[in-house]
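All the exercises in this workshop are built on plain-text protein records. Sequence and backbone structure share a record, each on its own labelled line. The structure tokens are whole numbers drawn from a learned vocabulary of backbone shapes. The record below serves as our worked example for the rest of this section.
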Amino acid sequence: METGFTLLMLTFVYGLCLLSFYPEKYFKKISYKYSHQEAPDYKKFRFSEPFFFSFLGGYLLAFTVVLLMF
């Protein structure tokens, strides 16, 4: 139970840390933004790729830390 909670907490923390280093220019869909000027703002950003890679990296870091700790 403690190991699972630690893994979950560290994954969240490391994922957010890695997400903060992700450049803002990759959040924007440049081609969609310039070709569809009347599109709403929420469609001008792509959030799935940065979140996926940052939390995947956070999970790998957390797994390594938990594996070395226990």
About this structure: Residues 48-69 form the longest helix (22 residues). The mean pLDDT is 80. Residues 34 and 44 are 9 Å apart (CA to CA). The radius of gyration is 16 Å.
